[in-house]
Each structure stands twice: as C-alpha cells, then as structure tokens.
Design goal:
The structure is a homodimer of 309-residue chains. Chain A has 13 helices and twelve strands. With 309 residues, chain A is an alpha/beta fold.
Chain lengths: 309, 309
C-alpha cells in the first residue's frame, strides 16, 4: 500500500491528502436541509448530511489526488449512524481507487492494540469466517504506550500490506507540552522519531517503510530535523492552510527524491467555499470550490518543491 | 459523577471496576454457537455473542460493584455491529445504575478532541435537537498532544458533570519506553501526573476531581509517588490479576481515607471460569464464576487496605 501511495503521488504529481473532517459548520445548508427532510433531525439525518457532503467532494476531487484522510472523531460524535457514514466514506473512496488513511489515533496495551489493528486494517474472525470492520489502508497511531502498543499494528499491517502513521510531533499549539520535553538534551519527539524509524525497518516497502510518522506543518524546523532522523519514513503533514502552514514551510519535510511526505489539508479544501478566495463559487457549488482549492494547493506545494530542487 | 462513583464505592465497599473486554476466546462455546445460529457467522453474530456474554456477567455482578469499564477496541474490531454491542452494553450498565468508564483512550488536536468528547460524554447537535452518541460517564484520554488535546474533554465534562481518566503510567511492559524518560531528572510520567493534577483543579467534585489518572497496578512504586503528586486525583488502576498486579501491591494507590483509587480487573473476572481456581463452575455457569471472582477480588483488596489502615 505504501507503493500504491507513492505511485499515485507520482502519477497525480500531488503529494497531498484531502482531510475528510466534515464538521457540521462546514456543510452547506441545502445539504443539511435535504438530509434532515429525508431522515429527520436525528443522528441518522446528520450522518446522511455528512455522507452527501463527502460524496460530492470526493466526486469533484478524486482524479486529482492520491489519498484522503477521514478523521473518525467527526463521525464518531454522531454515534452508530456517524460511524456508518465513516464506513460508507471509506468504502466509496476505495471504489474511487483512493488510498484511505483513517485518522483514528488509536493505541493501547498489546492485546487491545491488536483488536484496533484487526478492526481498522485487518480481518476479524466470526466463527469460521473473516470480515473487515472498517478496512482503511493506513491508520494513525499514538505512541505513548511504547513498542508493545505499536507493534500489533505493524504485525497486522505486514499481513495485509497496509501501514500506519505514528504521531511524532503534532500540529497543535500545545504539542510541545510533553513532546518537546528534553530527554538527555534532546526533545522527546526526536526519541519517538528514532523509534519510528526503527519500527519502520520491520515493515519496509521498496524505498520507504509502511511505518510512517505524523509531523505538523506548523513546526517546519522540527520537520527538517525529523526528516534527517527518519530517512525512509513517509511523513504525513497536517496543519497546512487553516492551521497556518504554507507551501514554502513544507519543503524540508520532503527528501531529495521529491518524495517522503504527504501534506494534508482539511478545512482549506472541504470548506473552501466559505473562504473569500472561493466565495464566487457559492454554497451550491461547494464541491467545485473544493476542486479549485485542490488545484491551488498542488500548485503551491509543487512550486515550493520545484524551487528547492 | 465522581460523587456517584465515590458513593457507590463506599456503599459496595468495593473499590473495583469490572473490565468488559470480551475477547472471543473468553466467550463460552454455547454462547457463541447460539449467537451464530441466530445471526450466522457474521459480524452481527459475533456482536450478539459479545452482548449475551456481557449481559450475563453484568446480571451476575452488578449488585456487588460500583462500575464497569468496557474496552471499546474489543467491540470496534467487529465494525458497526460491534460498536452497536458496545452501545447496548453501556446502556444496559446504566440501567443497572453502574458507573460506566468507556476505555476509549481518545485524544487529538482541540477541535477533534471536542468531537470525541461530544460523542462519548456529551451531546451532539442535529438541526435543532441534541443526542448522545455513546453516553459513558467517564472515558480514558491519551495526553500525548498536551493541554489543548485534553481540555475539550474537561470542558464537556464540566457541562455534563462527567469526567475523564488521563493515561499517566500505563500497565504494559513497554510503558517505560517513553513514559519513564527522564526530563530534568524526573520521569515523564511525573510531569504528566503533575499536569493531570493541575487540569483537575479546573473540574473538582467535593474531595476529588473529575479528572482522574490511569496508573498501572504493575508499577506499584511509581503508583506510590504519583499518589502523593496527585492527592485529589482518582486513580484508575488496570493490570490487577491477569497482568500481574496483586492486592498488596495496590495499597499505595489509595489515600488514607481509603479512597482515591479504583482497581480494574478484566480477564480475571469475565473469564474466571477458564481459571483452575473457578473450573468447578464449568463453562455453562461462567457468570457465577465471575461473581465469585468479584467476591474474591473485593476480599483481596479490602484485606490489603484493612491491614494498611
């Protein structure tokens, strides 16, 4: 799957991922009204609005992009109907041949991590049969519990040729509170990054590992250091656009082969129609605004990469 | 809800929580066969087996215990049908007036943590109406992202009089890999523990905070230190029994009021019938074995506490 991700990045010339984080305030009124009319003002109605919104954005962008990253929390908040919309979204993206990175940030003790791994990137047994619960291609993983909390994801990933992205240095303002603490003179995120590189050796693709890392666009200096510490690690970079990261900040997340990083934008793409820059599309044509925002994001990042290499 | 938890602990004289982590290998054959016969060897069939197993254990133990802790991963592995069984379990435990601690270990950037908080301990809006997605009383939270990843859980908890338990020092063998790293001469878990105590000041019950901590029974020395660092923090203690912790190891997790800690056992209770000690019950009477294991666990812990105070 890391090979498929790399091939698709090369083919689209777009090292980007669209974050499908459908907050209700992003969804145009006409979509919400239609869904509530059909299903009532219920969890099912909200989930239907989420799904229709996602579908329109996927239809308008899938040919330009290699991957999507649905954030499960935005679905989980609507309980079972929300998670059903998550699964529908994952399945639909896979039909469109997109690589799906489930942003689930799971992580627990060994036997529990194994259950999460099985549910999201593996198969679970029911009697003599096997089923896939959610079936993403990659998921994000929290490293706080250490190796025995992470390795079950790698083990299941090896069986399935699927992978993970481990949180190293997150994009949020308070990420430094624990992640930047100095351990023998070095910030904790470097220690975690080295460990991610070591875990990565256990599950390699051709040039890159199936074990990736999450490093926020909002911390370009740290990204530069982590890039060198984890040369074979694909870096998933959130925080572009709405969270403040810019194309020029991102070049150091890439290797000299122009690969090694994939930049996520969520709100900047899916709620583009709410920005002044794309206001001329109007709420009815929100998906066209998203497509234009994808085109612009690719240009911003490709331009920055071209001027570096 | 922290007051309800404390009242129920005093009333039952049982500072324990039963971990509802229904791994398939724990579920007796007759339960699985009946479920698969009814629903087929499907995710629905597996989820039905999980639910029937849980229900029997809850029915056999609820009058002896203050709280349960369903581990969501064990349900999530079965996809949507599994999560439906999770919700059914939460609802049923609440009908039985048990305090429900959802072991979900969520945690993300601010807006995403808010969605998780809303889905698990709050209310979500659909049009003009509000709904509860999963509706636990407490959930566990991962602190790796720092304050802005944790505070949305506290904010929603304040509105709802619900709470959280933040991972500080986990019970698993490799928990020290990052958690024990020395930061200015002190292990990271102490830094996290101090922060948990500070967060706790923002959402206090009477003597104890709604912001608790998770500290593994397998690390009694660390528990002793953390107990002193976080005097008003309730400590959720996993790792008793199957993971190796014993009653005598646990006394230092408690304050001198005999409160301040609640000890979880999962496999040791729910799969008691598989132990030699309870083999005489037989698989058919697995729930009676669980009840006896609860009685024995209460005696072990109360005995250890009595000999300390």
């Amino acid at each position: 799957m890391i090979q498929k991700l790399i091939e698709k990045i090369k083919k689209t010339n777009a090292p980007i991922v669209v974050g499908l984080d459908p907050m209700m305030k992003y969804i145009p009124e006409h979509i919400k009204q239609a869904a509530y009319q059909e299903q009532g003002e219920t969890l099912e109605g909200a989930a239907e609005a989420v799904w229709q919104y996602n579908k329109a954005i996927i239809d308008a962008t899938y040919d330009l992009i290699p991957a999507v990253k649905p954030q499960i929390a935005m679905y989980e908040q609507f309980g079972i109907p929300g998670l059903t919309a998550f699964k529908k979204t994952v399945d639909y993206c896979k039909e469109k041949d997109l690589v799906v990175i489930g942003d689930v940030k799971r992580g627990d003790i060994g036997s529990t991590s194994e259950a999460y791994a099985v549910g999201h990137i593996g198969k679970v047994q029911a009697g003599s049969r096997f089923y896939r619960g959610f079936d993403e291609d990659f998921i994000t993983v929290n490293p706080y519990l250490g190796s025995d909390g992470v390795k079950p994801f790698i083990a299941v990933g090896k069986e399935e040729k699927k992978g993970i992205f481990v949180l190293v240095k997150t994009s949020n303002p308070s990420s430094g509170e624990f992640q930047d603490r100095l351990v023998e003179g070095r910030p904790l995120y470097e220690i975690v990054g080295e460990q991610v590189a070591a875990w990565g050796e256990e599950h390699m693709g051709e040039e890159y590992s199936y074990v990736g890392a999450v490093v926020g666009a909002t911390y370009p200096e740290q990204g530069k250091i982590l890039r060198k510490l984890m040369p074979k690690t694909y870096i998933l970079v959130p925080g572009y656009g709405a969270q403040g990261g810019k194309g020029a900040d991102l070049v150091h997340f890439f290797n000299e082969d122009g690969l090694g990083a994939i930049v996520n934008s969520s709100r900047g793409i899916i709620a583009a129609y709410q920005q002044e820059k794309y206001a001329q599309f109007g709420a009815k044509n929100f998906a066209d605004a998203s497509r234009q925002a994808v085109v612009d994001m690719i240009e911003d990042i490709s331009g920055a990469l071209a001027s570096k290499y």
